Amino acid sequence: MTLFEALTAARQKIDRLDARLLLQYATGCSHTDLLARPETPVIAPAYAQFAEWVERRAAGEPLAYLVGEAEFRGRVFQVSPAVLIPRPETEVLIDLALEKLRGLTAPKVLDLGTGSGIVAISLALECPAAEVLAVDLSKEAISVARNNAGRLGAKLAFCASDWFAELAGQRFDLIVSNPPYVAEGDPHLSRDGLPFEPQMALSDGEAGGNGLACIRRIVADAPAHLTAGGWLLFEHGYDQGAASRNLLHDAGFKAASTFPDLAEIDRVSGGHL
C-alpha cells in the first residue's frame, strides 16, 4: 500500500482534507511528501492506524479527537473527549478580555468552565501581567488544561469547582466564561460531531429550558466575586444576546452589551460593576 493508494481509498469514505490530514498524522509524512513521493510505501502499523481513523471519522467522530489536538490562535492544544474542541468564534471572547485588561497592573482573571484551557492559557500568554485562575467542574478537563499550560509555557492556577462554589471571598478584575448554552433537546446536539463532545459542556441540561441556566447562575453570582469596576464577559448562542443583556442589567451590571464574532453573529455579552 502506497501513500497515493491509501489516500485514494480513504477519499471514498471521508472528506478529502480529512483524509490527507489523517494520513499525515498516521505516517508522519508531510503534504509535500504526499505530492512529491506518492509512491512511498505505508508500513503496516501506520496503515492500520490510518484505516481505523478513517472508519471512525466516517462514523462522525471529530478529527481533533482522533489525532488528539487542535489549533487555536496559532497554538496547538491537546484535546480529548473530556473537553470541547476549540472553535474560532471563541477568539472574540479573548480579544474583548484583552481589551478590558489593557492598562491594568497585575489584574486578577477568572476563567469559568475552562475545558481544554484555551481561554485561560491564551490570556495568560498574551497578558503576562495577569494572575489567571482556571476553574472547571470536570477534573478530567482540568488535567487536559493543566497539561496544555505546561506544554505552552503558560503560568496560571487551576481549581476544581462548580462555578463559584470553591471561590468564597475571592475577587477578580475580570471574569470570563464559555459556559454550556445549548438548550436541552436542541437538534443541533445530535449533528456535526457534537454527540462525541462532552454534553455537560454543551448543554445546561435543564429540561424544557432555553439554554440560559448556567449563564443565569454566573451572572447572578459574579458581582460577589468582582472588584469595583470589574468586567464579566461570557460566550453564548446566536439568539441569546437580548436575554443575556437583560440578565446583566437585572444583576446590577452597567454598560450591558453584546458583541458579534467575525461572522457578525451575536457571540459574547458582558458588563461591568
Provide structural commentary.
- The structure is a single chain.
- The chain has helices at 3-10, 16-27, 31-36, 44-58, 63-67, 91-101, 118-126, 139-152, 199-202, 213-221, 241-250, and strands at 69-72, 75-78, 108-112, 131-136, 157-160, 172-177, 226-235, 254-260, 266-272.
- It is α/β, with parallel strands linked by helices.
- The chain folds into 2 domains: 3-59; 83-272, Vaccinia Virus protein VP39 (Rossmann fold, 3-Layer(aba) Sandwich).
- Strands 5-4-3-6-7-9-8 form a 7-stranded mixed sheet, with helices on both faces. A two-stranded antiparallel ribbon has the order 1-2.
- Helix 7 links the parallel strand 3 (108-112) and strand 4 (131-136).
- The protein is elongated.
- The N and C termini lie far apart (64 Å).
- 38% of the residues are buried.
